[in-house]
């Protein structure tokens, strides 16, 4: 990877997003709106909101970044932009790194807004530091970005890119421990959940919710989410194609 080329790619993506304010608004505001909606659904039942809100604080940004990143990257390919870029002295790693950096910056803003809303306006009660919530929310958003970049290589249309969400995200949502403790699942499902990064994202949020200090379990879970994002980005660079067949 070349730092100059990676930064140039990131700057180009950000310039394009600047001319698409509706997409930027959706990326930044949808997780906040969904958290607020969840708070109103429970209508004063703070304990129930706490148990679900912390987990969804990471899941909502992951889903949002996955959808936006996969569609935006696919649009680059179908419009011919990707082919022109790769005809230049620009490596696949530079391209993927630039996209990850650009969307990662938006993920930071998204995570800050969602965490601030949950903690200071929706009274999300956590035993640990709110900054740890922000760290996990950011890692989840970056994981969603990485997954979106990766799956875009296997879609030939925006419709197919959206269809990848049920295939990639929803199984993780069902098995992450949000609806039932993973330990109570069937052994096969529990084994599958152990290799899904969203499981560790939810576990990390649970650690912040119940422990006043940083635990070794939190460090392990956060490291697994970060490692999964890095691995998926590497796979995304390896599978990147110039055009969609």
TrEMBL record:
Major localisation: membrane
GO cellular component terms, semicolon-separated: ATP-binding cassette (ABC) transporter complex
Gene Ontology biological process terms from the UniProt entry: response to antibiotic
Subcellular location: Cell membrane
Superkingdom of origin: Bacteria
Protein keywords: Antibiotic resistance, Cell membrane, Membrane, Transmembrane, Transmembrane helix, Transport
One Pfam family from the record: ABC2_membrane
Bilayer topology term: Multi-pass membrane protein
InterPro entries: ABC-2_transporter_component, ABC2_TM, ABC2_TM_bact-type, ABC_2_transport
Domain ABC transmembrane type-2: 18-243
TM helices/strands, residue ranges: 24-42, 54-74, 95-119, 131-154, 161-180, 222-240
Similarity annotation: Belongs to the ABC-2 integral membrane protein family.
Name of this protein: Transport permease protein
